[in-house]
Amino acid sequence: DVKVTQSSRYLVKRTGEKVFLECVQDMDHENMFWYRQDPGLGLRLIYFSYDVKMKEKGDIPEGYSVSREKKERFSLILESASTNQTSMYLCASSYSGSEQFFGPGTRLTVL
Amino acid sequence: GEDVEQSLFLSVREGDSSVINCTYTDSSSTYLYWYKQEPGAGLQLLTYIFSNMDMKQDQRLTVLLNKKDKHLSLRIADTQTGDSAIYFCAERRTSGTYKYIFGTGTRLKVLA
């Protein structure tokens, strides 16, 4: 079975802190994605990556950056966390042309 | 626009059928998906349909696709309390850089 893991299920940070969210997949997928999920807004794509060291902006990249140094790992970075970044963050991976496989999510609260 | 639209809530009685509807926007989408999200968890793929199909059945699940109206539905027969969850439809677009567009999600509540 494909497994996508995220480093934390719950995280509480303070405004202005630098936050790292890690995602690891074990199925050699080329593509990896970061979404945030907010009530009534569904999933919104922050960034995605289709290969190591490659990244593309999604629909809401502002305030975020990403890193993909190894194929299995895709990191989301909040350079200076703000309260409006309180959300559920979901990581996903896929082969090209296939469905996405999701991690369990990280619920981030920024105080 | 880019939106994939779903109604936010649906409530049904145990044993009844549930129908969750979705409208999408891009006629070039090749795959359409239904995902289920249980409380506190990520999304799990339930089923998908190719854009050249009208219908797909998988045990209690039936997916109907009306490509002309860009309308997708998920029917769950004999709905159980364990089906209570949020259901997302998603389209995979092939125009430009391919990406997945998700709907807002429909929260299904099954009453015993």
Describe the structure.
The complex is a heterodimer of chains A (111) and B (112). Chain A is mostly beta strands. In chain A, 37% of the residues are buried. Chain A has strands spanning 4-6, 10-13, 19-25, 31-38, 42-49, 56-57, 64-70, 73-78, 87-94, 101-102, 106-110. The mean pLDDT of chain A is 93. By secondary structure, chain B is mainly β. Helix content of chain B is 0%, strand content 56%. Chain A binds chain B through residues 4, 9, 33, 35, 40-43, 45, 48, 56, 58, 90, 92, 99-105, and chain B through 4, 8, 31, 33, 35, 40-45, 48, 88, 97, 99-100, 102-105.
Q: Would you count the extended β strands of chain A for me?
A: 11
Radius of gyration of chain A: 13 Å
Give the amount of beta strand of chain B, in percent: over 45%
Average pLDDT of chain B, to the nearest integer? 90
Order of helices and strands of chain A: EEEEEEEEEEE
Secondary structure class of chain B reads mainly beta
How many distinct beta strands of chain B? Answer: 11
Distance between the termini of chain B: 39 Å
Terminus-to-terminus distance of chain A: 37 Å
Counting DSSP H or I runs of 4 or more residues, the number of helices of chain A is 0
Please give the share of residues in helix of chain A: under 10%
H/E topology pattern of chain B? EEEEEEEEEEE
Distinct helical segment count of chain B? 0
